[in-house]
User: Fold these one by one.
Assistant:
Number 1:
Amino acid sequence: MLPTFPTLEAPHLGEAESRRLAEIARQVRRDSIRMVAAAASGHVGGPLGAAEILAVLYGHEMRREPRDRFVLSNGHLSAAYYSVMARVGLLPVEELATFRRINSRLQGHPSRHDLPDLVEASAGPLGQGLSFTNGLALADRLDGNGARHYCLVGDGELQEGQVWEAAMTAAHYRLASVTLIVADNGLQIDGTVENVKALRPIGERFRAFGWHVLEPDGHDINGLVAAFARAREEKHRPSVLVANTVMSKGVPAWEDQAAWHGKAPSLEEARAALAVLGESPEHRDFPIAGVNL
Ligand SMILES: [Mg+2]
């Protein structure tokens, strides 16, 4: 049973902006399903579960000037990461059709070698992203450029000891520009986080390490916007959003099941899922050669 968190008071986002971000999240879900099904390999559970987090980060929270930085530590969420960058105009949407193909820039795990202007850190081995984010934050502090720093991790990833070394580092250096987001879905590839190696209460653990802790609903756009705004107001400590999410959110047949952590849907399963997500005139699905999807 996943815990529920109180809804944070949201600033006035405006109906249109809220709808725009929700539409980005829905398109991220559609893209992720099509990309992974067409490649016949990859992950859908995490990308579907992080759609609102990524939509709010890339569609609303992060600034281009000064250049705020985002590190995807759980690199297996790459489909959603590439999709959201495409949907805010940082990558050609058509390029999403090359996901996981040989010589594509869009490898199964993000590669800075292939996308040096967009990917801050190559990822895949779990547990390293927060350390990297701290390094970026320390460097940007020296440069005095005012950039903010965001890092997304999975809850299972918190089992890696390096994350807690990095948590100590961020608090020690008072890296208030750092906001860590934990996609807290209670699952990891081998089952429930509780059974593999228990972590709760996650917020209390970060508090004990000197962090400013917020606990938004990871699918509530207004709540996420509010949580990021509060994190920005914190001037002395790093912030963490322990965001309650559901693996495979949006496709009920796949929701809250560890089996969907790292499995590609068949084309038939993908078509059924896309039907559940609905069609709308705003969808700009890209063609994928040789795949009827
Ligand atoms: Mg998880």
Number 2:
Amino acid sequence: MMEKMVSDKQKDSAARPLVRIAVDMDEVIADYFGEQVSRYESWSGVAVDIAATEGKRLREWVPPEHREFVSSLPRTPGFFAELRMIEGSRDALELLSRYSRIYIVTAATEYPNSLREKFDWLAANFPFINWRQIVLCGDKSIIRAEYMIDDNIHHLRQFEGEKILFDSPHNRKVPDDVHRVIDWKEVLDFFRARGVLPA
Ligand SMILES: [Mg+2]
């Protein structure tokens, strides 16, 4: 009886396609903001008050004469290669990979220099993500999946599946009409509640 139950369950999960989760890179698995702040602080000598930046991108918060420097950062060779991982992201994606199909979806073509760096960064930090699961794109409105995790509300608004807003200082003023998570632990809780992960 037990064997039969197991085999029915296996059959069921084999027949049901895995849900697809589109996962952003910057500010979701890669600490773009942290690197931006640390490079800006060393260049300008200004200490960034993170709470004061809420609702703004760093380039909007700094004085006008510093904006060009901040805008130049993502075009600077090595910038994307040096980003730290967002805490908990690797273990969470490794777990989610067992129960869903993860796609890393990043609007990267605005900065052509970032393409190689992002690809190599993923290989070094997320070795269980293979090349078929990496989407380096320009416009995320072409993406179809069941879920999207992103810190950018514009990408989420264009997405037809279920939207998960990953908290970041710049999006703190976004209205609460999308599901906000503050960290990867909350992402896992969300997918447990949806039945994607076992309870
Ligand atoms: Mg992002």
